[in-house]
Amino acid sequence: MSGQRVMRAVGALAVVVLAGAAVACGRSPRRAYYPTAGSGGGTTATPTGPVQAGDARGLLNQADGALRAAGFSLVGQAVHGQLTPGSLVGYGLEVTPGQCYAVLAIGNPPADIDLTVVDPGGQQLGFDVHPDPRPWVVVCPRTAGRMLARVQTTRAAAADFFYAAYSGPRGATVSLASVLGTPGGSGASSGGGTTVATAGGGGGTVATGTGLVENFRLLDNDMRARGYEPYGEPTRGNLTQGQTREIPIELETGRCYAILAVGDTSVRDLDVLLLDSGGRQIDRDRAPDARPTVRVCATSTGSFNMQVRMFAGSGAFAYQAYRWPRGTSGPFGLRGLIYVRLAEVTALLQVDGYGPDDTIDPGRGTLRRQGDTADESVTLQSGECYAVVAVGGDGVADLDLALSYEGQEVATDQSVSAFPSVRHCATGTGPHRIRLRAADGAGPYFYQVFRRGAE
Fold this sequence. Notes:
mainly beta; Jelly Rolls; 6-stranded antiparallel β-sheet; 45% strand
């Protein structure tokens, strides 16, 4: 069943775009803050000169020397930037196979800076979320593409930092631990660096932490980047396989929330269900992973129950509620959960350098039964890079999305998510088919096309 095309409303569209940008990026709401190394995001800095032990500039000089000694060279220029507490900035990096890339952000105490590297599809590839001001990772891609380094501060302090990226030969021994400390990230390396070999495209390895603290911090960073604010304090628990724990939570009418749980490394599959006071299921996350999240826009004030079930594995878990701090309705008649889902995905896309393509009308429709599909058509231009986003409304727990051109599938997202997205750099101009499928649940959907570099 084909959906309904939605007319453009440029003035109203800005409301959706900016819903997450102002908070997630900590910048002016008129434009997403998306610098690339050497071309924005602060003043450029040359990592040379006398070493001043202990300060950020001196540590940058030391790291530069260690990387050059290992055969690495600076990509573009180092950038000097500033972030307000809890804010985020993204730096683009074009990569080629056969090379490894060292990415670092160096600040001074008391700043606490996290660094996450994502592939063109937005999947986490490597990270350093150790609580210090000097994160660094090493990524070795297998295919060419545009990676993104997200530099993020905690809510406790602002950060004055230097960002730099280096490229070097695959197989080179790289360790900055003696200069910047051992990173708190994941990867395949056995040394100090966090090295991840990625598949490129929309796939790749999703990074996971080395323990509960890191796993939680990764998800907490992601929720804050989407525009949410913590609601209450994080809490820990412990479950064995097959056990379930019920956790009550008070929610306010007219407000939207996200509630997550995350397990330790011994937890393989953790599920979450959210129930209202009468025991009716509101949302669920039964994806086969240890990081479930449920969302709700409360229609009444009262007590809700979150059920956390240890489906596979055992051990410690943490859970945290988040509140959407801004409006719950916007353009195109979107209200409640479907609007908030779109707004939070839009916030992440802005950081990654994507804006709504105002030459392509958004669209909407309804998948009336689980398993139903809907086909939509959009015209993409050769040489342009796009992100296609679909969001499901109330009743949709899992929505699949596939993009095809001339009968060939070029990108797909079949993860367990109610708001899938794919990214694709078009190789030909013409109609591209969007296929949506209600994998779990049924209800309304909305889709929109974003283009890299669009304002």
